[in-house]
Amino acid sequence: MNFRSNVKLNDELRRMRFEYVGSEKKVYTEKERLKRIINYVAAKGSIQSSRCMGLNVCSRYVALKDLNTLVRSGQLVRHGNKASTIYLSQ
Hints:
Arc Repressor Mutant, subunit A
């Protein structure tokens, strides 16, 4: 099935002006990100890097950097490797 609009609708669509309305994403400091990760792990029991990215609205690089910081400080323990890595509280 094909949709064919009428001439009037086509003319109206051509004259429309669209405007980008960007969403402002929250930028967390490193201290805030680490605290949010610790709180999440305390509530849920574990976290993965992909969840950390969503939680802190950050890139994979930043998420892994934060998780590795918490592992080095002894607050989290890493289990698994590569894509199946999960982080648990100590």
